[in-house]
Amino acid sequence: MAIHYSRICLQYLIHLAHDNVDFRLPEIRSLLSLRGKPFDPGENFKEKSPFWRLNGLSEEDVNSIMARTVCAKSAFELWGHGRTHSELRNSLLKYPTENMSPFLQKDSTYKINVYTFNKTLEFEDRIKKIDAMEYLSFEGRVNLRNPKHIFCLLEDYGTDPNDIPDEPLYIYFGRWIADGQRELIRSHSVKKRHFIGNTSMDAGLSFIMANHARVKAHDLVYDPFVGTGSLLVACSHFGAYVCGTDIDYNTIHGIGKASRKNQKWRGPDENIRANLRQYGSEKLYVDVLVSDASKPIWRDGVLFDTIITDPPYGIRESTRRTGSQKDSVNSVKPSEDYVGDSHVPVSMAYHLSDIFTDLLNFSAHHLVIGGRLVYWLPIYRPEYCEEMVPLNACLRLVSNCEQTLSSHTSRRLITMEKIKEPEETDVLAHLSDPHFSPYQGHNAFREKYFSGISKRTLTGKEETNKMAANGGE
Ligand SMILES: C[S@@+](CC[C@H](N)C(=O)[O-])C[C@H]1O[C@@H](n2cnc3c(N)ncnc32)[C@H](O)[C@@H]1O
């Protein structure tokens, strides 16, 4: 009983990847909340550090986070830590023997890894560091190929590659528990995806979005600007049923011009269902429809556990909605840089601010309570302030993370959670509180985006390519 008690009071060390730094905390918080656990960091927590100490978790909690995270690399049961090797030694010697001994037994095998952040060590130096750990009573045999237990000495040399100290700033030692799902970034790369488009979302960000959204098995997930379905691919990986709509007939039907170099037309079966089949999740495909997100097509009431989407910003594709012939005085041509082969019967401008107001209203009406909306908001950085993030009385803002795209532009990943059903008074909320009214400044995003960079020497085309390389539009 005593051993059980001490084992659930352990501290765990999470080693995080040093990319998408802004997205890491909301990801880990979201995954913890799926287990009903709060984020309880150790003292001196630094969000930008690659190492986080977490309290109040069980090994099962840690395993469940690692089974989903793409932001964390590995997790360890932390046995000791300190600013110097001597502090580490003191800390390790104080660690309860009953916590260590099950992993140090004579009949077991083990290996010790050395990991250094922001410094590369010679092989001999690593061996010296391992030899210096002899004060821990490892009784098992070393087995480098297939050890029963893996331990790791992790040294943190700070985050400045131009100022690497001789000695580590902080050192940790722990028992390895699990790796995260970084491998998904490679295995689901859009480069190897069956059906892609000019705006297909990068695999890593798609999984981050699905984690921020807390998508889980048997959920029903909807993407109203589905494109080639990259977000549905990530959500179905976590066992959710997925569906989507897009205004573009050719995209939904997987026909028209191909986006790949050296391929003129899309081949047969280049569609979203085939993408899910590629990753073994076709049984979770519900359907996709041609539909304009500005028009109501859904029956009233709660329909979806999650709404996850990457709305058009008008950089690579125009922001459009369908209209009748008589509306066509207001119709817009696709933007000059629009390279897709689109098919939208008669299209009219769909202002960015309206897109977001519609998206939040739709989510307020059609999400389950506790269900999340996760979407990208384009931002003109010189003018951005938090008040620009659209609000809705039925949705609580959970997180707001920035991905910088250029010196002047970025997009922010917004996560909201439905807290109540809409009432009649909510429809009028925008009249009394400017937070709830559409931010008209978003409409000028495209114009500002290009005027911003014209101050520099980049051409619109170059900058567009840069955004695409970042997984943006
Ligand atoms: C940024 S892309 C989405 C890319 C998608 N996440 C993917 O991975 O392929 C935005 C999509 O919104 C669609 N779209 C534009 N206006 C729309 C509207 N009014 N209603 C529905 N879809 C629209 C475009 O055709 C485009 O496919």
Automatic annotation (TrEMBL):
Q: Which SUPFAM superfamilies match?
A: S-adenosyl-L-methionine-dependent methyltransferases
Q: Which residues form the tRNA (guanine(10)-N(2))-methyltransferase TRMT11 N-terminal domain?
A: 11-182
Residue stretches of biased makeup (Polar residues): 321-333
BP GO terms, sorted? methylation; tRNA processing
What's its top-level EC category? transferase
Q: InterPro entries this protein is in? A: DNA_methylase_N6_adenine_CS, RlmKL-like_Mtase, SAM-dependent_MTases_sf, TRMT11, TRMT11_N
> Does Lipid biosynthesis appear among the keywords?
no
Q: Which domain of life is it from?
A: Eukaryota
Instruction: Determine if Transport is one of this entry's keywords.
Output: no
Main location group? cytoplasm
E.C. number? 2.1.1.214
Q: Where is this region: Disordered?
A: 315-336
Recorded hits in Gene3D superfamilies, A to Z, give: Vaccinia Virus protein VP39
Localisation: Cytoplasm
* Catalysed conversion reaction: guanosine(10) in tRNA + S-adenosyl-L-methionine = N(2)-methylguanosine(10) in tRNA + S-adenosyl-L-homocysteine + H(+)
A GO CC term?
cytoplasm
Q: Which UniProt keywords apply?
A: Cytoplasm, Methyltransferase, RNA-binding, S-adenosyl-L-methionine, Transferase, tRNA processing, tRNA-binding
Q: Name one GO molecular function term.
A: tRNA binding
Which parts of the sequence belong to the Ribosomal RNA large subunit methyltransferase K/L-like methyltransferase domain? Answer: 192-322
Task performed by this protein = Catalytic subunit of the TRMT11-TRM112 methyltransferase complex, that specifically mediates the S-adenosyl-L-methionine-dependent N(2)-methylation of guanosine nucleotide at position 10 (m2G10) in tRNAs. This is one of the major tRNA (guanine-N(2))-methyltransferases.
Q: Matching PANTHER family, A to Z?
A: RNA METHYLASE-RELATED (PTHR13370), TRNA (GUANINE(10)-N2)-METHYLTRANSFERASE HOMOLOG (PTHR13370:SF3)
Q: How does it assemble?
A: Part of the heterodimeric TRMT11-TRM112 methyltransferase complex; this complex forms an active tRNA methyltransferase, where TRMT112 acts as an activator of the catalytic subunit TRMT11.
Q: Which family does the UniProt entry place this protein in?
A: Belongs to the class I-like SAM-binding methyltransferase superfamily. TRM11 methyltransferase family.
Protein name from the UniProt record: tRNA (guanine(10)-N(2))-methyltransferase TRMT11
Q: Which organism is it from?
A: Salmo trutta (Brown trout)
Native organism taxonomy: Eukaryota, Metazoa, Chordata, Craniata, Vertebrata
Q: Which gene encodes it?
A: TRMT11
